[in-house]
Amino acid sequence: MVNIEVQLCGLVFDIILIFFILRHESVGLYSEKIFKLCLMVYTICVFLDIVSVFAISYSDYLPEFVVAILCKIYLVSLLLASFLGFVYSFCEIEYLRENTEFKLVLKIILGLAISFILTLPISYYHSGRIIYSKGPSVVATFVFCPIFMVASMMITILYGNQMSALKRRGIRLWMVVGMVAAIIQFIFPQLLLVGFGSSVGLFILYSELENPEAYLDKETGRFSFDTFNLYLKQEFAYVKKFSSIIICNDEDWKLDEGTEKKILVEMSEYLASFRNAKLFRLQNNDFALIYDTKPDIQMDEIESAVNLDVIRQRFKMSWDTGVDLKTKFLYMPNSSAVSSVDEFVDVYMRNRDVFGKDEEMKVLDDSASQYVREYKQMVIEIKDAILSDRFEVFYQPIYHIATDRFVSAEALARMRGRDGKLVMPNKFIPIAEETGLIEQIGEQIFSKTCECIRDRGLKEKGIEYIEVNLSISQCENPQLSVKYDQIMKNANIAPQDISLEITESSTLNQKQILLDNMNKLMNIGVTFALDDFGTGESNLNYIVDMPVKIVKFDKNMVQDYFKNEKAKVVMDATVKMIKELGLSIVAEGVETEEQLEKIKSMGIDYIQGYYFSKPLSENDFIKFIDDKNKRIGA
Ligand code: C2E
Ligand code: CA
Ligand code: CA
Questions:
Q1: Which protein residues are within 6 Å of ligand 1, measured from CB?
Q2: Per-residue confidence (pLDDT) for residue 301, from 0 to 100
Q3: What is the pTM of this model?
Q4: Which ligand is nearest to the CA of 586?
Q5: Best mutation site among 588, 613, 616 for ligand 1 pocket (most ligand atoms within 8 Å of CB)
Q6: Number of the ligand closest to the Cα of 395
Q7: Which has the least CB within 10 A, 348, 381, 586, 603?
Q8: In angstroms, what is the span from residue 552 Cα to ligand 2's centroid?
């Protein structure tokens, strides 16, 4: 019996691996493909190893050239195996993968190595169970294989930061095992360990990295969100065009765990039935179907559209135990709408939460990513403006009907762009609120307002107080009252000079903190106003709940008053009620003289609107007040 036990073990190992890998659907990742190729070549290599051992042991009966060819083919396969190992180690490093010179050098080295192995002489040794080949051809193999192995090691050192720690470790272990086997076999040629060693190495790599299970989401057995990221990264790297349907489910179905899991599995099985698409489980309970965009089919045509319609129909029906879920869909007909995985995920995350009331599907096109890009740009600009002190306060005068004077003003934030242009609040306030940056902006605006009150002597000019806006997140910050108290102290102004505007909002979670803040500030003399009254979110109850002194009618409500008879009746009654509660009213958005006269006759106390003035820069505001309130000093 020839000594092929070790190689047979290796062969069995490889075949088991092949079996496990073929059982799973492949993601289609490049590294996955190279790994499979490695596995095939390694298996063939171990097989050829066995064949060559037989050939040598029967060399007395076989023509000399047949034995030589069989042995050399084996050596070439060994070389290819270590070469593929090298390819595997750099396949994710874009710089090398896309580098034509690097690839040319590789081809030359490989070509040289193969021609050396094939042309150099080879001889054999066999005595009983000890069988091996030797000679210059074998030496060439044992020179070139380690070169590729060492090169793989070098990749993990030089480009290690571009691969996962797992991959780095896996490749190093693989190469160490392979090299140890090669060294032992080189020193003791009778120990034919190389084939087996490589199989063990592959097995390590398989269990650490290329195990298809690692690509799966445990709950549904579908590709995971991490895999989704890897896959799309590759698709973008190769500029592949694809379409995607994202199935957006509520984060919380409010069902018991067992039922939820059942539905998830049922859903994923249904979605996986679309053979032309890859299915991924995303965050929460979302899924994504990704499929190639057929270049000759128009975006809105047949296949993809049919799929989406069919899917939407299915999701209108119930799942499992009759559960109806209000699933929504995001449809990106063409991946060119975004330029990277990160952007894709940004667009997806932004859109998954903002469906209109009866909206069930949204198409994600260039404008969706455009929005996300602008959003991110605005975040950067806001941060920059905060750091470089580019927020300015504009003041819109507020007119007091009873005394026919301007007694107050609202402080309104403006952002000065790097180009010197003014950016209006509707561009940056919503984004600042969403990102929490509003807290810093709010503080800057408040400090500047306080300084203006002090430095410009507003009190002496007849301005009793300035209105300053507070956003929800500021109100929910337990530190607000302490901070604002400190800012007023620093500026050396009286709290009575300030009225803070709050708004009612369904997103207010910490009402108690807001009330605590209000009470602390009211105790030192600050007053509060309720802003945006008459917009969707506010109601009379809120006025009862909140210790405000002033109610500000939103400009839309004021405008409606002039247009709509019903709105007029409601507003007249509202004014009456608010007055009975002992509160003052500011009407915003008064633009014409006619409107002014009507408002005056309603019992409203103050007017803020373009009729008198738009918000003005600090200097213009001072001029305005000096001009209009002249009589005060007289
Ligand atoms: P707001 O608090 O309701 O402020 C009143 C807005 O109505 C101002 O817009 C003002 O210019 C506008 N306005 C006043 N009179 C008229 C009128 O007669 N016609 C029309 N069409 N508009 C009028 P602005 O300055 O663009 O501010 C928009 C919003 O941005 C503010 O609405 C407020 O919610 C927010 N905002 C501004 N500054 C700040 C701030 O410092 N902090 C916070 N949290 N929000 C701010
Ligand atoms: Ca306001
Ligand atoms: Ca307002």
A1: 396, 412-413, 424-426, 429, 438, 442, 445, 469, 471, 531-532, 555, 588-591, 608-610, 615
A2: 46
A3: 0.73
A4: 3
A5: 588
A6: 1
A7: 603
A8: 8
Beta strands per DSSP E along 369-404: 391-400
CA 347 → CA 32, 217, 339, 477, distances in Å?
Answer: 28, 22, 11, 30
Q: 606 is written with which tokens? A: 């103050």
What pLDDT does residue 10 have? 87
Q: Which two tokens stand for residue 558?
A: 């004021």
DSSP 207: I
Which amino acid residue places its CA nearest to atom 15 of ligand 1? 609
- Contact between 199 and 10 under an 8 Å Cβ cutoff? The reply is yes
Query: Per residue in 290-303, pLDDT tens?
Result: 998 765 555 554 45
Q: Which pLDDT does position 634 carry in this prediction?
A: 42
Distance in Å from the first CA to the final CA of the chain: 122
With tokens 């094939």, the residue in question is 118
Ligand 3 centroid to Cα of residue 510, in Å, is 22
Kind and range of the H or E run holding 422: strand 422-423
Q: Which two tokens mark 436?
A: 């929490």
Q: Report the DSSP beta bridge partners of residue 585.
A: 551
pLDDT of residue 538: 59
pLDDT at 102 over 90: yes
| Residue tagged 């599995």 (tokens) | 265
pLDDT at 493: 97
Amino acid at 378: M
Q: How far is Cα 195 from Cα 41, in angstroms, rounded to an integer?
A: 11
CA distance 215 to 425: 45
Helix, strand, coil in percent for the chain, rounding step 5: 60, 15, 25
How many residues in the chain?
634
Roughly what angle, to the nearest 10 degrees, separates helices 438-455 and 366-387? 40
Amino acid letter, 405? R
Q: In what order do the strands lie in the sheet with 287-292?
A: 278-281, 287-292, 242-248, 328-332, 361-363
Report the nearest atom of ligand 1 relative to the CA of 608: 15
Contacts of 532 (CB under 8 A, 6+ apart): 503, 504, 538, 552, 554
Sign of the four-CA dihedral 43, 45, 50, 54: positive
Region 450-470: mean pLDDT is: 96
> pLDDT of 344-397, one tens digit each?
999 999 899 888 888 999 999 999 999 999 999 999 999 999 999 999 999 999
Residues with Cβ–ion distance below 5 A, ligand 3: 531-532
The token pair at 207 is 């269990």
Cα of 115 from ligand 1 centre, angstroms: 79
What type of residue sits at position 461?
Answer: K
Ligand 1, atom 11, lies closest to the CA of 615
Atom in ligand 1 nearest the alpha carbon of residue 470:
44
Strand partners, 119: none
- Dihedral Cα 430, 433, 438, 442, nearest 10 deg: 70
Asked if residue 270 lies in contact with residue 312, where contact means CB atoms within 8 angstroms, the answer is no
Q: How far is the CA of 412 from the centre of ligand 1 (A)?
A: 6
Question: Cα(554) to centroid of ligand 1, in Å?
Answer: 10
Residue 202 CA, chain-centre distance (Å), reads 34
Which residues hold their Cβ within 5 A of ligand 2, which is an ion?
A: 469, 501, 531
Query: Could you tell me if 483 and 521 are in contact, meaning their C-beta atoms sit under 8 angstroms apart?
Result: no
pLDDT attached to residue 295: 55
The tens digit of pLDDT for each residue in 172-218 reads: 988 898 889 888 888 887 777 887 888 888 888 888 888 888 899 99
The radius of gyration of the chain's CA atoms, rounded to the nearest angstrom, is 37
